[in-house]
Amino acid sequence: DTAVSQTPKYLVTQMGNDKSIKCEQNLGHDTMYWYKQDSKKFLKIMFSYNNKELIINETVPNRFSPKSPDKAHLNLHINSLELGDSAVYFCASSRLLVPDTQYFGPGTRLTVL
Amino acid sequence: DAKTTQPTSMDCAEGRAANLPCNHSTISGNEYVYWYRQIHSQGPQYIIHGLKNNETNEMASLIITEDRKSSTLILPHATLRDTAVYYCIVSPLGQGGSEKLVFGKGTKLTVNP
Predict the structure, then answer these.
(1) What percent of the residues of chain B are helix, what percent strand, and what percent coil, each to the nearest 5?
(2) Distances from the Cα of B15 to the Cαs of A74, B41, B82, in angstroms?
(3) Which of B45, B49, B96 sits opposite A31 (nearest CB)?
(4) Gap from A82 CA to chain B (nearest CA, Å)
(5) How far apart are CA A18 and CA A88, in angstroms?
(6) A interface test, pick of B30, B99, B107 with most A CB neighbours within 10 Å
(7) Would you tell me how many other CB atoms lie within 10 Å of the CB of residue A57?
(8) pLDDT by residue (tens digit) across A30-89?
(9) Which of A15, A34, A88, B5 is 20 to 30 Å from A41 at the Cα level?
C-alpha cells in the first residue's frame, strides 16, 4: 500500500494558470508538509500542517495556498503560475512526536511553459 | 541554510562498506542528526537519526563523535540500489509538526559493480 501519494505525477501548464496538487497519506499521521525541489536539486520546506493547522510557512508567495480538508490530506493550490514555479513538489507526513521521521511522497513534477 | 558540510560525491564498490562523513560543528545540544537519501527521481527516504549515542537499524549505522561535531553514516554492505544522494541534516527538537528539515546539497554516492 502506498503510504504517501500525490496526484498528478506530472503537470504541464501555461503561465498564468491555476493548478492544484493533491496529497494523501494513509499512515494515520497528524502532520503533513510540502517541499519544493528546484532545478538545482535543492529541497526546501514550504509548509507544515499539524492537525489541519498551519505550523510552518516559509516565506512562500501567497500565490501558493495549502489546504488541509482533513488530517490525511494536504493539497497545494497555486494561482497565476510563473516560470519559476517549475520544480518537483514533494508532500511528506510524520507523527505528532519529536523526534520523528518524515515519509515522503513520490513527487509531482510541475513544468510551467 | 544547511548547518552541515558533506563531500559532494563518493564512490564505493558493491559489497563493501560505504562510510559517508558529515560535519556539523555548530550543532546545538537539542539538535538531532538525521540522515535521509534520495534515489534518482524519487522522494527522500529516511535512514536513521541520533542525538549522542551511536545508532543502528536495518539500513545503516550512525556514528556520532563524542563532541557531536561530526558523524558518519555507514552502509555495511553497499548494493547498486544504494546509489543515491545522501543528506545529513541537523534539526532542533521542536514541537511536533515543526520539524523543519533543512536539506543541503548532500553527497552523491555511486556504488560500482
Answers:
(1) 5, 45, 50
(2) 40, 24, 11
(3) B96
(4) 23
(5) 17
(6) B99
(7) 14
(8) 889 999 999 888 899 998 888 778 887 787 899 999 999 998 999 999 999 999 999 999
(9) A15
